[in-house]
C-alpha cells in the first residue's frame, strides 16, 4: 500500500474515499473488506444492476432507446454491451440514462451516513468521468496485468476482443496508480490485501477528531 494522501476537499465528516480500479483488479473484493471493517460502501455497479434488474427503474427507458436489450430479467448486459462498446454515440446515450439515477442514489447514501467518520464510494470510472474531483482521496485497486486478464477471461461471454474494448474505455492502470493516494495490491494473498485496507480505515479513524 502506498499512502500519499493529498485531500482534495476540506476534512469534514464523513470523509469520502473514492475506491476505483480497472476491470478484474479486485475492486469488489476490496469493497467487501472495507464493509467488514465497518465502513459504509456505496457500490455504483451494484446500484446499476439494481436499476437495470427485474422491475428496475431504468429498464423501460433502456428498452425504448435500445430495443431488444431487455427481458423478464431486466437488461441483458451482453446484448446491451454489444450495442454500446466501441460506439461512442450509443455509449453516451446510455450514460445519459444511467448516470443521473446513480448520482441520486449516491446523494441519498451520503445523507444516510453523514454522521460517519469515513465512507467509501466504489466507482469503476472514477477518473474517466471526473468523480475524483468530488472525493477527499482516492484508493486504486491494482494487480499485475496478466492476473487481470486471467480473472476477466474467466467470466461468461468474455473474449480478448471484448476485454481490449473495455480497456480502451478505461484509464490505464499505471496512470491510476500514479494518481492514487492509496494503492491496494490484490495480486497478493487476501490476508495482505485485508491488512492494507485495515490500515487505511484505521488512518481515517485516527484523524476523525480533526474533522
Could you characterize the architecture of this molecule?
48% of the residues lie in helices and 13% in strands. With 211 residues, the chain is of the alpha/beta class. It has 2 domains: 1-40 and 116-211, Rossmann fold (3-Layer(aba) Sandwich); 45-112. Helix 2 crosses helix 5 (88-112). It is globular. 31% of the residues are buried.
Any key phrases for this structure?
two-stranded antiparallel ribbon; 2 domains; 211 residues; 5-stranded parallel sheet; alpha/beta; globular
Summary, kept brief:
With 211 residues, the chain is an alpha/beta fold. It is built from nine helices and seven strands. The protein has helices spanning 27-36, 44-52, 59-65, 77-84, 88-112, 145-153, 160-169, 173-179, 190-206; strands at 15-20, 41-43, 70-71, 74-75, 118-122, 137-142, 182-185.
Tell me which CATH architecture of the largest domain applies here: 3-Layer(aba) Sandwich
CATH superfamily of the largest domain: P-loop containing nucleotide triphosphate hydrolases
Strand content: 5-15%
**Unreliable residue runs:** none
What fraction, in percent, of the residue positions are helical?
A: 40-55%
Read across the widest sheet, the strand sequence of neighbours is: 2-5-1-6-7
Level-1 CATH class name of the largest domain: Alpha Beta
Rounded average pLDDT: 90
Number of alpha- plus pi-helical segments:
9
Distance linking N and C termini: 24 Å
Oligomeric state of the chains?
single chain
The radius of gyration computed from the alpha-carbon positions, rounded to a whole number of angstroms, is 18 Å
DSSP strand tally:
7
Domain module tally = 2
Q: What string gives the helices and strands in order? A: EHEHHEEHHEEHHHEH
The backbone outline, from C-alpha atoms, is globular
Quote the CATH topology of the largest domain.
Answer: Rossmann fold
Amino acid at each position: 500500500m502506498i499512502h500519499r494522501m493529498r485531500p482534495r476537499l476540506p476534512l469534514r465528516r464523513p470523509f469520502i474515499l473514492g475506491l476505483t480500479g480497472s476491470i478484474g483488479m479486485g475492486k469488489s473484493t476490496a469493497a467487501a473488506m472495507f464493509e467488514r471493517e465497518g465502513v459504509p460502501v456505496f457500490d455504483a455497479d451494484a446500484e446499476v444492476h439494481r436499476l437495470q434488474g427485474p422491475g428496475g427503474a431504468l429498464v423501460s427507458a433502456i428498452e425504448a432507446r435500445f430495443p431488444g436489450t431487455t427481458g423478464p430479467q431486466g437488461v441483458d448486459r451482453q446484448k446491451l454491451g454489444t450495442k454500446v462498446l466501441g460506439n461512442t454515440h450509443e455509449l453516451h446515450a446510455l450514460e445519459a440514462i444511467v448516470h443521473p439515477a446513480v448520482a441520486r442514489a449516491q446523494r441519498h447514501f451520503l445523507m444516510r451516513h453523514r454522521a460517519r467518520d469515513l465512507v467509501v464510494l466504489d466507482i469503476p470510472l472514477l477518473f474517466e468521468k471526473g468523480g475524483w474531483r468530488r472525493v477527499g482521496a482516492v484508493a486504486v485497486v491494482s494487480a499485475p496485468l496478466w492476473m487481470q486478464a486471467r480473472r476477466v477471461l474467466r467470466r461468461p461471454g468474455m473474449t480478448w476482443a471484448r476485454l481490449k474494448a473495455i480497456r480502451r474505455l478505461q484509464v490505464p492502470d499505471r496512470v491510476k496508480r500514479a494518481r492514487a493516494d492509496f494503492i491496494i495490491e490484490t495480486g497478493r494473498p487476501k490476508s495482505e490485501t485485508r491488512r492494507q485496507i485495515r490500515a487505511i480505515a484505521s488512518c481515517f479513524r485516527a484523524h476523525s477528531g480533526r474533522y
